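Data deposition worksheet. Section B asks for the primary sequence of the deposited chain exactly as it was used as input, without tags or linkers unless they were present during the calculation. Section C holds the resulting structure in token form. Section D is free text for depositor observations; keep each observation to a single sentence. Incomplete worksheets are returned to the depositor.
Section A, Depositor: J.P.
Section B:
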Amino acid sequence: MQWSHDSFSFWVDEHAPVGPDQKAYVKHLAAIFRFLAKKVMKKWSMTQNLTFREQLEGGIRYFDLRVSTKPGEPGHEIYFIHGLFGHKVRDGLNDINHFLNVHKKEVVFLDFNHHYAMSEEHHQYLIKMLKDVFGHKLCKLDVVEEITLNYLWENKYQVLVFYHHPSAEGCPVMWPGSKIPAPWANTTDATKLIQFLETTLGERAKYGSFHVSQAILTPRVKTIARGLVRGLRNYLVERNLPTIMTWVGAQKPGIDGVNIITSDFVELVDFASTVISLNNLLLQDQSGT
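Section C:
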């Protein structure tokens, strides 16, 4: 399955406060330099250029989602976040649901893996929102190996939600984060990234959970300083994409191979089609050719 990293970050609000997911020194710099600092943050926070609809139409089916409340804002409104605040979560979910209403056999995975500045009331508000928006489309927690496309189609399930917080425990349509580990290389070096991906694939559990291979490079402070104006896409991603895509194209899906692969700026190369084509290897195995 093909996945986009920080899937919502195609738009961030430069006028909103710096998000609570940022370190104290980043907030301090933003307070001093204000709009200029946020311009730089935008260049390094945006990991996608395509909207949810465009990502879905391009073949992306797995979404990496980070959410937060806004400091000082009354009510329970929740926003996507990656350094800077993005769209309201409800708007994004409605976009996804509209796509699913039109494409009845499509299935998406929504991974809510980071929550910031959220009380128990906020979590319950978000969980209720997910139920209200998707309703019967939400797949109930089950044995991972039972979750085949035929199973999903027979039950008219189209959405699997992974919720990495204790507030969702006991909710039958919220899958725990433990069911979808996503090891993070935390490196700017493409060679080290590939080594990490190979190692973690070799260590992945063969049964009982999904698995995410994060084929992404993570900028450090000095990386951002060197590429201050150019940003994540121009300075770090584009020049390393050939190495990453070579690795992706050489993979085999299944128990001993890849399950879900994530990348930044998925539109720069034929990321989705490359990952989708890997499934042909499974069909060949089944046919014995």
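Section D:
The two ends are 23 Å apart (CA to CA).
The longest strand covers residues 108-116.
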